[in-house]
Prior knowledge:
The chain is α/β, with parallel strands linked by helices. The protein has 2 domains: 2-214, Spore Coat Polysaccharide Biosynthesis Protein SpsA, Chain A, CATH 3.90.550.10; 229-398, Hexapeptide repeat proteins (UDP N-Acetylglucosamine Acyltransferase, domain 1, 3 Solenoid). The chain has 7 helices and 41 strands. The strands form 9 sheets. A 9-stranded parallel β-sheet has the order 14-17-20-23-26-29-34-37-40. The chain has an 8-stranded parallel β-sheet with strand order 16-19-22-25-28-31-36-39, with no helix packed on it. Strands 5-4-1-6-11-8-12 form a 7-stranded mixed β-sheet. Strand 9 (138-142) and strand 10 form a beta hairpin. The mean pLDDT is 93.
Amino acid sequence: xxxxxxxxxxxxxxxxxxxxxxxxxxxxxxxxxxxxxxxxxxxxxxxxxxxxxxxxxxxxxxxxxxxxxxxxxxxxxxxxxxxxxxxxxxxxxxxxxxxxxxxxxxxxxxxxxxxxxxxxxxxxxxxxxxxxxxxxxxxxxxxxxxxxxxxxxxxxxxxxxxxxxxxxxxxxxxxxxxxxxxxxxxxxxxxxxxxxxxxxxxxxxxxxxxxxxxxxxxxxxxxxxxxxxxxxxxxxxxxxxxxxxxxxxxxxxxxxxxxxxxxxxxxxxxxxxxxxxxxxxxxxxxxxxxxxxxxxxxxxxxxxxxxxxxxxxxxxxxxxxxxxxxxxxxxxxxxxxxxxxxxxxxxxxxxxxxxxxxxxxxxxxxxxxxxxxxxxxxxxxxxxxxxxxxxxxxxxxxxx
Length: 400
């Protein structure tokens, strides 16, 4: 069976992390999220993939190539402009020969569910029971038959959501060709699926596990879930007087220096230096070529490659872009005194503990302080002894 994975979108809600990369290339446990999805499909016995690419497509093509290094065969289709999910799917018209799987590239699924969905009768939609269905498209059913598909609403008609995973047949392309633009100015896949709903042909497959990675803070939950099954492995050097507890993965060419204390699960990439006397707490991923130095502490965070956190820094519950540099004493707070949910801009993270979203190439002057929920744009420069809060645009010089 062929598997189509949608990977063309920018992911505007992920800004500034998607300034220079598509959303699907953001890392979970130091691997692009789309790689985890593909690996689940491979475990389910699927090896033929079509990636629909568009925004910064070169990042996807350069990383995956023809798929041979991953035990897969990958072809590419291009969505030149972002005109909706149906338009993205239409890019593979003529490339699929029979029933095929369609998966959104920004989610987490296990191999068992992919196998179950691929064995269903098409057309079939993967669904999941959500504790906050108001954030998603909701479906109604009679038995396993879909009776309605509804966009996000503050008063959802149930707790069963559209998970963005489908088993479809080539006839879907004929339906797409007759679609009109939606109120959002896009060609919506859900509008095409309503054709099947109207004839009673669309059924459901209930997913046992599922994770949406639509917002920066979702990366923390998905990263922690990926690390739960981490197998510790030390491929680099660990000096004397280092304490490692739980599962710790250390990449080639990396060194953990004396006096460092690490509580797993934690993954550290290649050519990194950690310590001396650093403290890294669970559910933290550190990308390649990073430096976490003397008396710096990291907790439940995702750090992209080539970032330096070298002296007396604290980063908790945060997502940090690549090629950032934290001046000595710079710290990111992650808890409000009133214990309320952290707001990031006008969006509720629904987390009591959340630090900041920091884009690529951000420079922090010494003793900078970042308040919970800050969003700092790529290329920003923060002056020494500055309090950072709210949303900072790309390439801004902030502070005195």
